[in-house]
Write a structure and sequence with these properties.
Bound molecules: phosphoric acid mono(formamide)ester
Shape: globular
Length: 312
């Protein structure tokens, strides 16, 4: 089996079978990551470019490391230090990179749909590393991989996603993916941070995190995206933490073996208490490690899709 599209633009476009193909491939890649010699020849002769118009630590670095571990040539362009700052359009920048022989361009952009526009206009594969408030598919894939690895399957799991759902591309991608894999997803947060019509995606909606967390197998807190918010969506960060922060007492509402997740970066003490963030149930550090394995898998699958090769 191969991925149907040359690009990874969103989880909305992927089938459950394609998601499982990525997860199974990532399992093999994780094995490679845990050996002493992380170098593999899978991407020898390929060029991978990261094109980031927004800041990033995890996504950008994990793509760069994934490329290098698999022997690709990897380079990074950030908008502030490129000709974008001289007024070059996204399509012209993309075509320029394409003509230099890029096989995959990984883009993060503040505008929803920017990766889709780029993908239509260039030959290289495009991976969406986060577009505005739309999707962050590679984050959702690493989140689903982490749950799948720990729980064996997502089928029938109760997953609570908490906080700023409105601005969260991570929440959107995870809702599409987790429901496709058979999980029962609940969302909760301040009513001003719940998008109208979110229930149409098949999730249960709650105004208190306590209701969403009862008997949950997985609890995922989201970052409060102060940079995307208009003022006044909640009174103060202290009040947010009081009503919607995940602390030790609230975590007891979930199952005893519930996983605590967060895509990062965490506003420590706001979305999660230090006790919960660093506690035994937290898999936040594993999410980071799995991010490299999942991105290795995606680069492998996208660059090999035409040949039909598969390592599973
Ligand atoms: N989770 C995530 O996208 O983190 P970065 O912004 O650090 O890439």
């Amino acid at each position: 089996m191969v991925l149907k599209s040359k690009d990874l633009l969103g989880i909305k476009e992927l089938s459950a079978e394609e998601i499982m193909l990525v997860l199974n491939t990532a399992k093999t890649m994780k094995y490679v990551l845990t050996t002493n010699n992380k170098k593999t020849p899978h991407l020898q002769g390929k060029s991978i470019i990261t094109l980031f118009y927004e800041n990033s630590t995890r996504t950008r670095l994990s793509f760069e490391l994934a490329s290098k571990y698999m022997s690709a040539s990897a380079a990074n362009i950030s908008a502030s230090s490129s000709s974008v700052s001289k007024g070059e359009t996204l399509i012209d920048t993309g075509k320029t990179i394409d003509m230099m022989g890029a096989d995959v361009i990984i883009i993060r952009h503040p505008m929803s749909g920017a990766p889709h526009l780029l993908a239509k206009n260039i030959n290289a594969s495009v991976i969406n590393a986060g577009d505005g408030m739309n999707e962050h598919p590679t984050q959702a894939l690493l989140d689903m991989f982490t749950i799948w690895e720990k729980k064996g399957s997502l089928e029938g799991l109760k997953i609570a996603i908490l906080g700023d759902i409105y601005h969260s591309r991570v929440a959107r991608s995870n809702i599409y993916g987790m429901t496709k894999l058979g999980a029962e997803v609940s969302v909760a947060g301040p009513s001003t941070l719940l998008p109208p019509g979110i229930e149409k995606t098949g999730v249960k909606v709650f105004n208190t995190i306590q209701e969403a967390m009862i008997d949950a197998d997985v609890v995922m807190a989201l970052r409060i995206q102060l940079e995307r918010q208009k003022k006044g969506l909640f009174p103060t960060t202290r009040e947010y933490s009081r009503f919607f922060g995940l602390d030790e007492k609230r975590l007891k509402l979930a199952k005893e073996d519930a996983l605590v997740m967060h895509p990062g970066p965490v506003n420590r003490g706001l979305e999660l208490s230090t006790y919960v963030m660093d506690g035994d149930q937290s898999v936040i550090n594993e999410q980071v490690m799995n991010g490299v394995a999942v991105r290795m898998a995606l680069l492998y699958l996208l660059t090999r899709r035409n040949s039909g090769e598969n390592i599973n």
